[in-house]
Design goal:
Length: about 260
């Protein structure tokens, strides 16, 4: 079905692999379009509860947007490309089902931006993060200027972008860019084990946690008011009744996602 990514579902977990290892999984038009479709699948397929994005091979998560597709683009085409990348990455960020990045090597440019659009990141010990666009006369365009600043703070973000330097996994952990650093061979299992736990929780509540956290950075929303609204909505769910009953009856809850 896809040519530049692969997908598989196991235990309600969708594994998306960006699959251009000979180009260090650079994001060309096909990858972006297929990623967009895979994210739609996360939203629409009830048998998927969460997802992991990883890069094929042992060297790279994603080494950036495909630079060969930049040549000859004009001002308006550059804007359209950024808008397209931003729209897809925003869809990842807004997904009501958790999507995490398993960063197995270089996460540069659009690759770093893709990882940052995910709900959180786990890094292999060989991971390297970077926004090296200044080396190309560019800036991050897929939301990176905003999400990097949110995640690591303005001073570090500006230094990171204007030097184009790479951060190693240990520094990324120290900056809060990633939640864990693990040996590369343990990366996927670590990501899966976290999500297998999440997949047993009440799905609508999981989605509302994401929505409330995203409201912090949405200037059109009052995050506290959003929290009140989302908290209240939980009381209209079967899962809230099931969860509280199960606790009081000293049994495990069986959530239906309703
Ligand atoms: N776009 C297009 N092709 C890319 C790419 C990108 N972002 N990143 C790597 N590739 C390609 C290389 O051109 C090369 O292709 P080739 O074998 O046909 O020549 C292949 O992937 C392997 O990359 P190579 O540069 O030979 O590997 P390396 O180990 O020497 O260097 C990097 C690794 C990541 C340091 C280097 O590839 C790099 O700097 N990539 C660009 C990073 C970047 O600027 N990203 C932001 C883009 S906005």
């Amino acid at each position: 079905m896809y040519s530049a990514i692969t997908t598989s579902i196991e235990n309600a977990l969708l594994l998306i692999t960006i699959n251009r290892p000979d180009k260090l999984n650079a994001l060309n038009k096909t990858v972006l379009d297929e990623l967009n479709s895979a994210v739609d699948e996360i939203y629409n397929n009830p048998s998927i509860k969460s997802a992991i994005i990883i890069g094929a091979g042992a060297k790279a998560f994603v080494a950036g947007a495909d630079i060969s597709e930049f040549q000859g683009l004009k001002h308006s085409e550059g804007m359209a490309l950024a808008q397209k990348g931003q729209d897809i990455f925003k869809k990842i960020e807004d997904s009501p089902k958790p999507i995490i990045a398993a960063v197995n090597g270089f996460a540069l440019g659009g690759g770093c931006e893709l990882a940052m659009a995910c709900h959180f990141r786990i890094a292999a010990d060989n991971a390297k993060f970077g926004q090296p666009e200044v080396n190309l006369g560019l800036i991050p365009g897929y939301g990176g200027t905003q999400r990097l600043t949110q995640l690591i703070g303005k001073g570090r973000a500006i230094e990171f972008m204007i030097t184009g330097n790479m951060l190693d996994a240990a520094t990324a952990l120290q900056y809060g860019l990633v939640n864990y650093v693990v040996p590369q061979e343990e990366l996927l299992n670590k990501a899966k084990s976290i999500l297998e736990g999440v997949n047993t929780k009440a799905p609508l509540a999981v989605g509302r946690c994401i929505k409330a956290a995203n409201a912090v950075f949405d200037h059109t929303k009052d995050g506290y008011a959003e929290e009140v609204k989302l908290f209240g909505e939980c009381f209209a769910t079967e899962d809230m009744i099931e969860g509280t009953n199960a606790f009081l009856e000293k049994r495990k809850p069986n959530f239906s996602g309703k």
